[in-house]
Structures are given as C-alpha cells and as structure tokens.
Design brief:
single chain, Rossmann fold, 7-stranded mixed beta sheet, 7 strands, 24% strand, SAM-dependent_MTases_sf, S-adenosylmethionine-dependent methyltransferase activity, Methyltransferase
C-alpha cells in the first residue's frame, strides 16, 4: 500500500490531535526537555511536536518529506506565534551538520522510516550525551467502545496492514522492537514510559481524524474515502449518539542517549 499523508493534509491540520501537554511535562520531569536546547523534530507532519518543543523554549528545527504537510505546519506555528525552522527533508537524511542538536524527537512516525537508517542519522546529528525520544500516541480499542467499532469499519474498507509494528501497537500501545533499533545504532541508557489519557472529539472531528489516517485519506481513492466517511457518520449516529466522544489513548515514549 502506498501511503501519502500529503493527500490528507487539510484533515490532518484540522483534526489530528497532537501529544498532550502532559507528555512534554513528563519529558521535562525526566530531565530530557528544557529551555535552550537545540531540538530536531523528524517526520514533523503538521508540527504538533515541534510546536510543543518551541513552547518549552527549545530552538527547533523540524523536517518532513511532504511540502503540503510543512505548509500546514508553518500556518499553525504562525498562528501560535512560534518560530521554527521548517525543512523539506527525511529522517534518514536530515541535511543537518554532525553533532548539531541536543535533542531529537520522532513523534508518531518512527514506523514509517527506514528505522536503522533513521537511528544512525539521529546518532550522527546529536551531540555526545544528546537524547533521542521516539514517541507514539495510540487510540485504544476496548470492548464496545467507539475505537473498536471504528477499527472494524477500517478493516472492511482497507484490510491491508501497513506495518506489523502499527498493528502490534494498536490495542497495546507499546513498541518493543524500537529498543533494538536504538541499541543497534549505538544508543545507550534506554528508558521508556507510558500513560493513558482521554482525548475529546466531536463526531465531526473524529470523522476528520479517521479521514486523516493512513488507512483512509492517505491511501484510499477519493470515492472510497467518501464512502467510508458516510459509513462512519451512520455508525456514530446509531451507536454513539451525542455531541462529544472521549477517546482513550496511550502515550508511549522511548528515551535513549547518544554516548
């Protein structure tokens, strides 16, 4: 399956929730995040992690291979009056000088990369003692909840698996294979944490979030996206009526140090 999030950039900008503030607070408590750090956000998408780092006082460079996603990121950062250096580049080839950043973050994107190459590039651009954070925010399917029902619909419209990691992470929200990625690249002092949060959506914003997902707007043809959206609207009206949805999510983060 060819996945192109640039095809769904509008919905991505409007509807994909970023990491909660509690994620950045946890990084700060762990001594990973502080003002003044030179930070790199790889696979930035619409810049949710980059904006969070900038709000905490970091000097942020953010890279992504999609020009349309970066356009959305620039707009959102401008609205928030945040200064970020946006660059069209990949996690595997950032174009940054060796040893030029103190902190590198990959949020909601590690599974899309050539992971060994991305780990080597992170090690190259980090200073000795610099930290790499790989983080993910998974919705949680539970018996009878809206996520379980939505995932059932996703499997009907697009049954192909994008990545074994993605499928494994869903429902559990942890990614043990990533520890091996970083160990093989020479990173040390690997630590991880996870916690659960409820993120609020309206029925309309949940539909937009689904259209912005890899199995819908980023991979299906437009007519199939429209059919999925109509089916999801019917499902929500019938089984989950009301004006608000509390969607359970799990934040997972792996923190490693460049020796």
């Amino acid at each position: 399956m060819r996945v192109d999030f640039g095809r769904t950039a509008d919905d991505y900008v409007k509807h994909r929730a970023g990491f909660p503030e509690s994620f950045f607070q946890r990084l700060a408590r762990e001594g990973v995040l502080r003002a003044g750090l030179r930070a790199l956000d790889v696979g930035t998408g619409t810049g949710t992690v980059a904006r969070g780092l900038a709000r905490w006082g970091c000097l942020v460079t953010a890279v992504d291979p999609s020009a349309s996603m970066l356009d959305g990121a620039r707009s959102l950062a401008s609205e928030a009056e945040l200064s970020i250096d946006w660059r069209l580049a990949t996690a595997e080839h950032t174009g940054l000088p060796e040893g030029s950043v103190d902190l590198a973050v990959a949020g909601q994107c590690w599974h899309w990369f050539d992971r060994p190459a991305a780990a080597r590039e992170a090690a190259r651009v980090l200073v000795p003692g610099g930290r790499l954070v790989i983080a993910h925010l998974d919705w949680l399917a539970m018996p009878g909840n809206v996520v379980e029902a939505t995932e059932g619909l996703l499997d009907v419209f697009n049954p192909q698996l994008v990545s074994p990691d993605v499928r494994f992470g869903h429902g559990v929200g942890v990614y043990p294979a990533w520890f091996q990625d970083l160990s093989r690249a020479g990173f040390q002092s690997l630590e991880s944490f996870s916690f659960d949060v409820l993120l609020p959506y309206t029925p309309e914003s949940w539909r937009g979030r689904m259209r912005a997902s890899n199995k819908v707007g980023a991979s299906l043809p437009p007519d199939a996206v429209a059919r999925f959206d109509a089916a999801l609207a019917s499902l929500l009206a019938e089984r989950f009526p009301g004006d608000s949805l509390a969607i359970p999510h799990r934040v997972f983060a792996l923190v490693a140090t460049r020796p």
